[in-house]
Amino acid sequence: MSVEATVTPEEAPPVMAGDDTPPILAVEGLAKQYGGRIGCADVGFRLWPGEVLGIVGESGSGKTTVLNCAAGRLAPTAGRVLYSAADGATHDVHAIAETDRRRLMRTDWAFVHQHARDGLRMGVSAGANVGEPLMALGARHYGRIRTAAGDWLTRTEIDADRIDDRPTTFSGGMQQRLQVARALVAEPRLVFMDEPTGGLDVSVQARLLDLLRGLVTELGLAAVIVTHDLAVARLLSHRLLVMRRGRVVETGLTDQVLDDPQHPYTQLLVASVLQP
Amino acid sequence: MNIPAAMVEPAGGRDDTYNFAYLDEQTKRMIRRALLKAVAVPGYQVPFAGREMPMPYGWGTGGVQVTAAILKADDVLKVIDQGADDTTNAVSIRKFFRRTAGVATTERTEAANVIQTRHRIPETPLRAGQILVYQVPIPEPLRFLEPRETETRRMHAHADYGLMHVKLYEDIARHGHIATTYAYPVKVAGRYVMDPSPTPKFDNPKMSECPALQLFGAGREKRIYAIPPFTTVESLDFEDHSFTVQRWDRPCALCGARDSFLDEVVTDDRGGRMFVCSDTDYCARRRDAGHGPEEEEA
Amino acid sequence: MYVAVKGGERAIENAHGLLAEDRRGDTEVPELTPDQIREQMKLAVDRVMTEGSLYDRELAALALKQARGDQIEAIFLLRAYRTTLPRFAASRPVDTGAMVVERRVSATFKDLPGGQILGPTFDYTHRLIDHDLAAPHRPRPCAEAAPVDEAMPRVLDLLACEGLIEPADPADPAAPDPPDASGAADREDGQPADITREPPRFPAGRDARLQTLARGDEGFLLALAYSSQRGYGRTHPFAGEIRLGTVPVCIAPEELGFEIEIGEIELTECQMVNQFTGGADRAPCFTRGYGLAFGHGERKAMSMALVDRSLRADAFEETRDAPVQDEEFVLSHCDNVQATGFVEHLKLPHYVDFQSELELLRRLRREHDARNGPDDKAEAAE
Predict the structure, then answer these.
(1) Quick one: where's region Disordered (chain C) (predicted)?
(2) Average pLDDT of every residue of chain A
(3) Which of B30, B39, B32, B56 is nearest to B226 (CA)?
(4) Residue C67 sits in which domain range?
(5) B60, B102, B210, B277: which is the annotated catalytic residue?
(6) Looking at the predicted structure, is the pLDDT value of residue B225 above 70?
(7) Element (H, E) at C251
């Protein structure tokens, strides 16, 4: 085993939080094994309100496993995930009852998938897609649900006239923006994104990135975003976690990590990207 | 209550090569346990080991098993299909119980204490002490939104019912109003979303706060559920698109009733139509009491 | 004056009368006896017993007569009768290894202990209509069959000796199905499932799965098995062994404390051998698919074995994306008595539901016309 640059145990100070604000999400000693194969091991990080954390690494590095465990969608083999709700209560995400976990996912969190298909209902209209999270939370006024859906279509730069069209008639970029509208309509505090710009054309990517950056700032969201694209990471995240073979090899402020990488793997990763 | 004896076909004539009401006692006990659980958790679908019955699946095997499990020798049974006592399947099921249980039967809603039904709730208000047994083809209200049992059971467990409203939303977005006319989903006692069986939504309001016990049996799908007496049953809707029932712009052409569900009868091949009560007992009783077709309005 | 349709009762009686008349057909032709059906329509009787899940040749033959040859109707009759039967005892597991074999073929080994025995099979007949059978006919006496070797070990047991195939006993620690996969562990009494006495649960144990497949519709399982061969969930099967013969049925009444033989039944058993490439911590080995039918039912047993293996996708960490691998889909739809009842219930009146839909449709049309004006056709007519 080669000696690798150690991960700073005390993480960089929060970018946007006040002095004694607790982290909104704390991941401790997270590990996931798939049979004999390691998905991830020894992963820990904290996320403060209003902060965007990027997880980068090549495919197979374990970043999506970490994201799914952190988002309560995949049970880890070891470690825990603590979420502090707006009322100050802390929830051990994988220890609480499934009902409570699902409620958190509906009320406080949102997830944006790489493929819009996984995050949308392709068989119902755009309006129903955006309205569903509200209805799941008990909204029972059709007119208000529809107005909210229309607003969110506009905010995600989708023509409000398309409200009754199915997502199957949308372009890839529009489907992804629709997924963002569906994720944010119920005003979550924490958003998980898995390669949200993957599979889109470069120009379409740029538009989505601008949109995401604007919305995250405007709504003061905390977010964990997984990407293999360092440009995406630089644009969206305040802090970075670099993963390789299931482990975190480097962490720090985004600019710091990308401009002055310490770990040889990060150096390789940064060098392999054409600098602007 | 005074019921003229002539309205009830008296008990007797049981074929004793079969156990009383066909099912063996162990099976009846198993069904009764499921029924008790169903009554204790209103609207929850209790799995039960449905038996193979001598009538086809989809033709009332669930309702027949429930009726067989609750029937006593001194009960008076009424069987209806589409609201009528004389439709072939109702006749066939009534004959089955006359043969295997020898119980008294009737067409009078108020004379019966067990009423097995397919697709309707009688127009005559039910009273305490009566039991209405529904035949159910597909007990799962979420089935056409989510085909998997493993997933729908999870959705019920977490009361995760947003999807149900998505369907209603889509109806309004497309048609301007909710376009579900029968098997209209309801929420029972504020907890479980339930399929009322394919009764027209016209009958939904009768289910709520009903003094009678309502039992539902789905034989092929092996599920039993129940609405205990005086339980709140709400039809799902939106605040600004509230649940409404069907109305006809004319009365029954035979008895003049304006408050009953009307069947459309095609009278000729030139577009001739008439509308008559689907509940044959209700219609006949009204005519006996002197009601008749209303005068055509000028 | 309109009079509501009445007389359901008389209509039913008349229908029953017509049915009896049609069943008999031309009375100039001699009436068929259940004995004739039992002896000369053996494969039809066997299928009715298998899917009716009741081993009774006389009753199955009678059911076929009553059902006018309709197999599913006959299966239905047998099932409804079966429900009413008291249960005296549960048999001990039958040992197909000790079968008195009538036919036994293996596609995996040319020769093997006990040899290959063709037995009564259509396999190598030319499918030419034999006009001789139109007249009374006595088959040529068959050359005396060589006595069948006493020891006829099951082919898959031979592979098991070398550890080349997964263990057959789910309790074996090397068995790939998860510990609770037999389903028995879930039950308080530790006994195998009884699908006729318990509601279905998903995921089902392999015991409940095999029982459901054994009662499942031959045509449905055949089509699913075929789909797996054509690439919808490939399992690379070999017919390890198909054997047909009789086995004794034993019960062990508690008060006696020993086994007694109560009779014998004819069975067809098929064991498929399927590839498995191995996993992270498991050596490559062959895997099993199992099929069993009453009487002579090779098509059924083979189809069942293929479908059984496909449904075990999870145990071998195979992706489940084909219909044949989807447990809920296969098990919920393979019972032909359930399927036929529900499909045919559409014959029952749906007046009130249809009335509700009619009313809605008329309203939607009125609203549509009010929004868009009368349609083109109406305009043209004016």
Answers:
(1) 167-205
(2) 89
(3) B39
(4) 9-82
(5) B277
(6) yes
(7) strand C237-251
Q: Which of A134-148, B138-152, C146-160, C303-317 has the highest mean pLDDT?
A: A134-148
Asked if B210 is an active-site residue, the reply is no
Q: What is the DSSP letter of C111?
A: S
B138 closest CA partner among B32, B30, B232, B225: B225
Catalytic residue among B13, B63, B252, B271: B252
Contacts of C351 in chain B (CB under 8 A): 82, 263, 278
0.95 surpassed by complex ipTM: no
Give the closest-approach CA distance of C111 to chain B in angstroms. Answer: 46
- Other beta carbons within 10 Å of B68: 24
Q: How many structural domains compose chain B?
A: 2
Domain range for B262: 247-298
Mean pLDDT of B193-214: 97
Calculate the dihedral angle through the C-alpha atoms of A244, A247, A249, A252, rounding to the nearest 10 degrees: 110
Write down the residue that tokens 């209806």 correspond to: B80
Find which of B57, B180, B202 to mutate to test the C interface (most C CBs within 10 Å of its CB).
B57
C243-294 per-position pLDDT tens digit: 999 999 999 988 888 999 999 999 999 999 988 767 666 778 889 999 999 9
C9 membership: H or E segment, kind and range? helix C8-24
- Regarding whether C70 and C107 lie in a shared domain, the answer is no
Task: Report how far residue A101's alpha carbon sits from residue A113's, in angstroms, rounded to the nearest whole number.
Answer: 19
Examine the domain organization and report whether B217 and B286 are in the same domain.
no
Q: pLDDT-derived band of residue C178, with 50, 70 and 90 as boundaries?
A: low
Q: Which distant-in-sequence residues (6+ apart) come within 8 Å of A65 by Cβ?
A: A32, A39, A40, A74, A246
For residue C282, which residues of chain A lie inside 8 Å, CB to CB? Answer: none
Highest mean pLDDT among A58-62, B267-271, C211-215: C211-215
Smallest Cα distance from A158 to chain C, Å: 27
Q: Is B162 on the interface with A (CB under 8 A)?
A: yes
Find out whether the peptide bond into C203 is cis, omega within 30 degrees of 0: yes
Q: Note whether residue C108 is domain-resident.
A: yes
Domain stops at, among B235, B256, B277: B235
Q: How many CA atoms lie within 13 A of B9 on its CB side?
A: 15
Could you tell me if C116 and C68 lie in one domain?
no
Does B166 map to a domain?
no
Q: Nearest by CB to B238, from A98, A136, A140: name it.
A: A140
Q: With beta carbons under 8 A apart, name residues in chain B contacting A122.
A: none
Confidence label for A254 from pLDDT (cuts 50, 70 and 90): very high
- Please indicate, yes or no, if residue B173 is contained in any of the structural domains: no
Q: Domain for residue B152, yes or no? A: no
The answer to whether the beta carbons of residues B94 and B117 sit under 8 Å apart is no
Orientation of helix A172-184 relative to helix A126-136, angle to 10°: 20
Between CA B35 and CA B44, with CA B41 as vertex, the angle to 5 degrees is 85
Is pLDDT at C74 greater than 50 in this prediction? yes
Residues 93-132 of A with CB under 8 A from B: 98-99, 102, 121, 124-125, 127-128, 131-132
Query: What's the rounded Cα separation, in Å, for the pair C364 and B176?
Result: 9
- Is B252 annotated in the active site? yes
Say which amino acid occupies B261.
Answer: F
Q: How far is B227 from chain A (nearest CA, A)?
A: 24
Query: Is C80 within 8 Å of C123 (Cβ atoms)?
Result: no
| Token pair listed for B152 | 């729908």
Position B6 confidence tier, pLDDT thresholds 50, 70, 90:
low
